[in-house]
């Protein structure tokens, strides 16, 4: 029996993506070392409804010194984090010497605005390469994983935090109990713990199955977050739907009794109950849609290649590992992936070993069709690559279904 990491209840597995590599382990072409694989399967706790992976990948394997994801590369996300920082400072930093802590600050996309505003801050980041980028921007960074012991160190050195914030980080952390205990240690009496992560409701609705990969250990709903928070003396008092990354929710937690929950909390939890997003029949249908989308995608790619069309991919995302390795997409169907991240260029995609090329080579010449792995940035990318469309190029997307635009 698989045991829930939150409440020790029974976890019912509902989909198995089979053997998968580390999603961000892009290999050098001459690397002959054994590639790490694990079983990617997802289940739901029958007691607390938390959706979670059934197998944990060691955190040191995923969040290495050369972690290749940089939050600041997307203009949409830069704007999002700047607005978030200003909102937090305006609404939650009313005291004479406010203190903001970010869990998983990456390259400082959010804390850069805080630092420039002169607000006391600290980023907690275990991946040294991106942390050094943040440090170069004048951001204070503590090089470590956030957990109970880390929180105690920060509290002793800097005092309590008015705001503890995280974006696309809390869902990465299997040991959520230690995170919540750390929040309890570090958070000021009237402070807020704010985090935003991919939303289970959107993943189920849109069949955005590639949001499931090694780093996304949990798929949160408002109901499961509220239940988990209460186990550690915290209360969910606000939720906000966000359009970024294919659909997220921003959760605001405080110590129990400090604030009344907003009407949005009741509305979203009731919507989840009404839609039964963790019902076995709903999750079974999700699995059917995943299989259908993958079969249709590989079928389309084979047809295009057989017809002599040139095909490539755009965005060597972490989530593309799930798609490529589950659907069996390799260099025979997609000979190259174009990406703007220098750390990934010249390497091979995890498991499928498709070469990653610089984005500057995209037009040399343009392919006929491009599979958009970074579909969550579709609007931004398609608007930027107008010349590709003007010369007849077509984009292939697979969320919520396989279609060509």
From TrEMBL:
Protein name as it appears in the record: Class I SAM-dependent methyltransferase
Entries under InterPro entries matching the protein: Methyltransf_Zn-bd_dom_put, Methyltransf_Zn-bd_dom_put_sf, MeTrfase_14, SAM-dependent_MTases_sf
Does the entry feature the keyword ATP-binding, yes or no? no
Report the residue ranges that make up the C-methyltransferase domain in this protein: 243-400
Protein's UniProt keywords contain Acetylation: no
Write out the entry's keywords from A to Z.
Methyltransferase, Transferase
* Ranges where the Methyltransferase putative zinc binding domain occurs: 4-63
One matching Pfam family = Methyltransf_23
- Source domain of life: Bacteria
Lineage of origin:
Bacteria, Bacillati, Actinomycetota, Actinomycetes, Kitasatosporales
Q: Name one GO biological process term.
A: antibiotic biosynthetic process
Q: Which GO terms describe its molecular function?
A: methyltransferase activity
């Amino acid at each position: 029996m698989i045991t829930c990491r939150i409440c020790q209840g029974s976890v019912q597995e509902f989909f198995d993506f089979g053997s998968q590599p580390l999603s961000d382990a892009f290999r050098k072409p001459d690397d002959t070392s054994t590639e790490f694989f694990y079983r990617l399967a997802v289940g739901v706790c029958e007691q607390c409804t938390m959706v979670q992976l059934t197998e944990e990948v060691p955190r040191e394997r995923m969040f290495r010194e050369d972690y290749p994801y940089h939050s600041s590369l997307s203009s949409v996300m830069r704007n999002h984090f700047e607005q978030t920082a200003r909102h937090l400072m305006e609404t939650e930093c009313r005291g004479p010497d406010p203190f903001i802590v970010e869990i998983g600050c990456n390259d400082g996309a959010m804390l850069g605005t805080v630092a420039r505003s002169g607000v006391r801050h600290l980023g907690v980041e275990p991946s040294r390469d991106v942390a050094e980028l943040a440090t170069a921007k004048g951001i204070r960074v503590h090089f470590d994983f956030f957990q109970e012991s880390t929180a105690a160190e920060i509290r002793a050195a800097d005092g309590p935090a008015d705001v503890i914030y995280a974006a696309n980080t809390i869902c990465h952390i299997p040991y959520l109990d230690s995170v919540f205990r750390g929040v309890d240690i570090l958070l000021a009496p009237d402070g807020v713990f704010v985090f935003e992560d991919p939303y289970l409701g959107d993943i189920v609705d849109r069949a955005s199955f590639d949001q499931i990969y090694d780093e996304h250990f949990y798929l949160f709903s408002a109901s499961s977050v509220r239940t988990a928070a209460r186990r550690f003396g915290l209360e969910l008092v606000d939720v906000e739907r966000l359009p970024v990354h294919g659909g997220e929710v921003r959760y605001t937690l405080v110590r129990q009794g400090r604030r009344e929950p907003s009407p949005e909390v009741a509305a979203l939890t009731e919507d989840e109950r009404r839609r039964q997003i963790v019902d076995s029949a709903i999750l079974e249908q999700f699995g059917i849609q995943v299989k259908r989308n993958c079969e249709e995608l590989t079928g389309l790619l084979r047809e295009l290649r057989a017809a002599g069309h040139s095909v490539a991919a755009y965005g060597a995302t972490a989530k593309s590992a799930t798609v490529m390795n589950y659907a069996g997409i390799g260099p025979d169907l997609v000979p190259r992936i174009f990406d703007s991240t220098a750390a990934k260029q010249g390497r091979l995609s995890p498991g499928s070993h498709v070469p990653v090329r610089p984005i500057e080579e995209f037009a040399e010449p343009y392919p006929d069709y491009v599979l958009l792995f970074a579909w969550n940035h579709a609007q931004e990318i398609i608007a930027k690559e107008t010349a590709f469309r003007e010369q007849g190029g077509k984009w292939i997307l697979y969320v919520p279904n396989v279609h060509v635009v």
